[in-house]
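## retry 2 of 3
previous attempt timed out at serialization; input unchanged, resubmitting
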Amino acid sequence: MKTATPLAAPPREACASCDVYRAANLKKLGVNLDQWDYVVALAGNPNVGKSTVFNALTGLRQHTGNWPGKTVTRSEGGFEFGGRRYKLVDLPGTYSLLSTSPDEEIARNFVLFGQPDVTVIVVDATRLERNLNLTLQVLEITDRVVVCLNLLDEARRHGITVDERQLARDLGVPVVPTAARYGRGLPELLQAIADVASGKVRCRPRRLEHEPAPLRAALGELVERLRAIYPDLPSPRWVAMRLLAGDERIREALRTGELETLRPAALPREPAESPLAPVS
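## retry succeeded, writing output
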């Protein structure tokens, strides 16, 4: 693989007066978020530097509490970039969205039912293959994703190089290399978030659609039924797969009509062209 494009020099200190933050036009809002334009979910495996990214974007001050009905901590903060205000929700670190633990259920439910404007997936550049499991599962639910390829400094120290441009083409979503602990790549990450949130960049994620033959007919039939009942359901194939797997949370959403409330996030009427998804 080719060596990634050189990153910006690290800032001298993590504060609003740093060159990197001035260049990025970033204003950390901490917990001072009465109103916001976009909601951004921050997802990732444990120990990938997700909290470092969260603190770098929002400042050290954050609102913490528990998720409803859970003992799992919920952290929220905010930042302003390019004249827009963003609410950042730090999801529990998890390896998958199969809802086998409270952390997985919370992350999955927020991405699906919370419908954030952008989901940022922080991945460890030194263990990329392991991290892509969660990434591909998130891409099954939403196409409004930015991959934050973090810990690039550690990867280079171990002689690992990642071609982030090829990875972006393979996944169909923006991939931004970062070393968040040093502030490297954060201006580019902010711009990618803004582009996806505003619709300037349209993502076309590469999804795995090679289910076993015995499952294909049942899955196709269920997808068609869901589309007929819920024509605006943003991820009918993923919902159908979870129903066939006996996912009680999704079954409950079907019984109560919660699925009917799901709508694709609104996009501008005339988004600018993007190399990821040219607008025809």
